[in-house]
Design goal:
Elements (H helix, E strand, L loop, with lengths): L8 E5 L3 H13 L3 E5 L3 H16 L4 H10 L8 H9 L2 H5 L3 H5 L2 E4 L2 H4 L5 E4 L5 H14 L5 E4 L6 H4 L9 E6 L9 E6 L5 H13 L8 E4 L9 H21 L11 H10 L1 H14 L8 H8 L28 H11 L3 H16 L5 H12 L4 H23 L8 H5 L7
Parallel strand pairs: 1-2, 1-4, 2-3, 4-5, 5-6, 7-8
Antiparallel strand pairs: 6-7
Helix pairs in contact: 1-2, 3-4, 11-16, 16-18
Bound molecules: nicotinamide-adenine-dinucleotide.
The site of nicotinamide-adenine-dinucleotide has 26 residues, from helix 1 and strand 6.
């Protein structure tokens, strides 16, 4: 096994939303060679351009200020407070210029060539299990024996992903929680059934070294794998509920153009990628509960190739400047209808229930850790902070939601209903 001091080459498979963000943080860490792989040189050219733009945005404090102001996640943060972390990151800290950094970036369409000298590989291809299994088969064949092979999957089993790989002990999950890896603190490390302790430890050390603009990296290792890991699993019922609500509003005669009160949902979903969410929901449907089946409207958009901002169209149409062109309006009747289904503390209640399921399943041992993971991932308090006092009230709310939607998965689990989670501090 390669040790941390000898890690010089990072290979990233997939140059999409995540791949280019991961390549950016790997380049800023200072690795000698970062190789991004994708299916065509056109995609790789686009990725290279975007990586360059993102590195240039960090060239000086002035440029960084502009970058903060233009980034949805960063614009509400106090720039002065964040300056410390910016100065400790990447090109200001290392006193190198964009050209030097970009000279360490390589691209390749053939995995067999691209991973030949890789010390650490991070896979970030489309969220499809069979595709990932095939990639890890190739990684087992063509990467050096000591290389650790990580998947950035948001939902899938590392054990299944490693099924065809010759070296499943080297395969781990390493998941950046946000679609902009330089700005999200949280990285989740997931073991597969055959992952070795050494591979997991190396994954943790590598993850800790990736620079982050919003604060110190927070790395959590799951006790065992589960669909959606910790943070996405906890938010998944809220996503399911919102999707149900969009379809329900349309079934009741409202058009998409009237649903402006949900614009924040449409924007963030388009940022994440509708195909990624759709594929994750299909995986949840098969592996967690049939209630997760993707909604009608989402399915229609994905079938029409509306995969989100990355292709210029998703729920919304996106122009070249990255702005949405057809934001639905705030129609009075539709807003009233939607708000009548969003009242109460429905989202924290759904999150608390799912977090309790993670405790029940032994994915995490303490609720304080879950709260910390959620805070580091979303900068909002975790579900137990309010849930400790409110869970009895929320149990009733969840029974009502399950009845109204016909989705029994929304019913409270035993751990939540009994309040036994309180013993698992
Ligand atoms: P994306 O669609 O933006 O990019 C996927 C890339 O994989 C595409 O460029 C595609 O051409 C490439 N690809 C497909 N088949 C390939 C192959 N055989 N060889 C090489 N490249 C191939 O998707 P994304 O949002 O970057 O997601 C990638 C992974 O990261 C998924 O597993 C997803 O669950 C995970 N993830 C996504 C997010 C998010 O917010 N989008 C966040 C965290 C993790």
């Amino acid at each position: 096994m390669v040790d941390i001091d000898n890690i010089k080459n990072i290979a990233v498979i997939g140059g999409g939303i995540m791949g280019l963000g991961i390549a950016q943080v790997a380049l800023l860490t200072g690795y000698e060679k970062v190789t991004v792989m994708d299916v065509s040189s056109e995609i790789l050219e686009r990725s290279r351009k975007l990586i360059q733009q993102r590195i240039e945005a960090l060239e000086s404090v002035e440029k960084c200020k502009e970058f903060f102001a233009s980034n949805e996640m960063l614009k509400n943060l106090d720039f002065k407070k964040k300056l410390g972390s910016f100065e400790s990151v990447g090109i200001v800290a290392n006193k190198v210029d964009t050209d030097t950094i970009m000279s360490r970036l390589y691209t390749e369409t053939e995995i067999s060539r691209g991973v030949i000298d890789a010390d650490f590989v991070i896979e970030a291809v489309t969220e499809k299990l069979e595709l990932k299994k095939g990639i890890f088969k190739q990684l087992g064949e063509f990467s050096p024996l000591g290389a650790v092979l990580a998947s950035n999957t948001s939902s899938m089993s590392i054990t299944k992903i490693a099924e065809l790989c010759k070296r499943p002990d080297k395969v781990i999950g390493l998941h950046f929680h946000t679609f902009f890896p330089l700005t999200g603190m949280l990285i989740e490390i997931t073991p597969g059934e055959k992952s070795s302790e050494q591979s997991l430890e190396l994954g943790q050390t590598i993850a800790q070294k990736f620079p982050c603009l919003t604060g110190k990296r927070f790395i959590v290792q799951l006790e065992k794998e589960t669909p959606g890991l910790i943070a996405n699993r906890i938010s998944s019922p809220s996503g399911m509920y919102l999707e149900w609500l969009i379809d329900y509003a349309m079934d009741n005669g409202f058009s998409f153009e009237q649903l402006g009160v949900l614009n924040f949902v449409f924007e963030i979903s388009d940022d994440i990628g509708l195909d990624t969410s759709y594929n994750a929901l299909k995986y949840f449907e098969e592996n967690v509960s049939p209630d997760f089946f993707p909604g009608k409207y989402l399915t229609k958009l994905v079938n029409a190739g509306r995969f989100g901002k990355k292709v210029g169209k998703g729920y919304l149409d996106w122009n070249e400047n990255g702005s949405a062109e057809n934001l639905p309006s705030l129609d009075e009747k539709a807003t009233e209808f939607l708000m009548s289904h969003l009242e109460g503390e429905i989202f924290p209640a759904l999150s608390l229930n799912e977090a309790c399921r993670l405790l029940e399943e032994g994915v995490v041992k303490s609720y304080r850790l879950i709260d910390k993971v959620i805070f580091k991932g979303t900068l909002s308090p975790g579900p137990f902070r309010m849930g400790k006092d409110k869970y009895k009230e929320w149990v009733k709310l969840l029974y009502n939601v399950a009845e109204k939607t016909g989705k029994s998965y929304f019913k409270p689990c035993e751990m939540m209903e009994s309040g036994k989670f309180l013993e698992l501090r």
